[in-house]
C-alpha cells in the first residue's frame, strides 16, 4: 500500500517552531520512527499552495494524509483539488484547531476528507496510517 503524506506551510519547521504547540521532534525523525512494514510512505512538504495542488493531482497513492497547515482555513483551491481526485484523503492536524484562535476553527478541507484527526500531536499521522491499513482503500 502506498500512502502519501502532504504537509503544508511551515511544517518544515516542526521541532523548531512553537515547540509548546508542535513538540520538539522533527517530522523526518518522526517518520523514521514509524514501523509500517506493509505501507510505503512518501512525504511531500511545500509552503506553496500550487505545489500542493500539483502533488494532489499527480499522486499515485492508495491514500493521502494531508496537514495543509494554514491553508486548511483559506484554500478553496486545495479543497477543490481534493474533490477532483479519487484518492481518499484523511486530514490531520497536530494541534486541536478547535481550541486555537477562532480563525482556525473552520476547515475547508474537512468536508471533502474521509476523516479528520486533530489534537493528538504527531500521533495523528500514525492514526491516519492505521485507518488506511485497516480500511478497504
Automatic annotation (TrEMBL):
Domain of life: Bacteria
Catalytic activity line of the entry: 3-dehydroquinate = 3-dehydroshikimate + H2O
Binding site for substrate: 67, 73, 80, 94-95, 104
Record-listed E.C. numbers: 4.2.1.10
Catalytic EC class: lyase
UniProt GO BP: amino acid biosynthetic process; aromatic amino acid family biosynthetic process; chorismate biosynthetic process; quinate catabolic process
A Pfam entry, by short name: DHquinase_II
GO molecular function, one term: 3-dehydroquinate dehydratase activity
The keyword Lyase appears for this protein: yes
Pathway the protein acts in: Metabolic intermediate biosynthesis; chorismate biosynthesis; chorismate from D-erythrose 4-phosphate and phosphoenolpyruvate: step 3/7
Swiss-Prot/TrEMBL keywords: Amino-acid biosynthesis, Aromatic amino acid biosynthesis, Lyase
Residues annotated as catalytic: 22 (proton acceptor), 93 (proton donor)
Keyword Lyase attached: yes
Coiled-coil residues: none
Residues at the site labelled Transition state stabilizer: 17
Alphabetical list of InterPro entries matching this protein: DHquinase_II, DHquinase_II_CS, DHquinase_II_sf
Role noted for this protein: Catalyzes a trans-dehydration via an enolate intermediate.
Family to which this protein belongs: Belongs to the type-II 3-dehydroquinase family.
Assembly and interaction partners: Homododecamer.
Protein name as catalogued: 3-dehydroquinate dehydratase
Organism: Brumimicrobium aurantiacum
Amino acid at each position: 500500500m502506498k500512502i502519501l503524506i502532504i504537509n503544508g506551510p511551515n511544517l518544515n519547521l516542526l521541532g523548531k517552531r512553537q515547540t509548546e504547540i508542535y513538540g520538539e521532534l522533527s517530522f523526518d525523525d518522526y517518520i523514521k520512527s514509524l514501523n509500517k512494514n506493509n505501507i510505503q510512505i512518501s512525504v511531500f512538504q511545500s509552503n506553496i499552495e500550487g505545489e500542493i495542488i500539483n502533488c494532489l493531482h499527480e499522486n499515485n497513492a492508495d491514500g493521502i494524509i494531508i496537514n495543509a497547515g494554514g491553508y486548511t482555513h483559506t484554500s478553496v483551491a486545495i479543497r477543490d483539488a481534493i474533490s477532483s481526485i479519487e484518492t481518499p484523503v484523511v486530514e490531520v492536524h497536530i494541534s486541536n484547531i478547535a481550541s486555537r484562535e477562532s480563525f482556525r476553527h473552520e476547515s475547508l478541507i474537512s468536508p471533502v476528507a474521509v476523516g479528520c484527526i486533530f489534537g493528538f500531536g504527531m500521533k495523528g499521522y500514525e492514526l491516519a496510517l492505521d485507518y488506511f491499513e485497516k480500511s478497504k482503500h
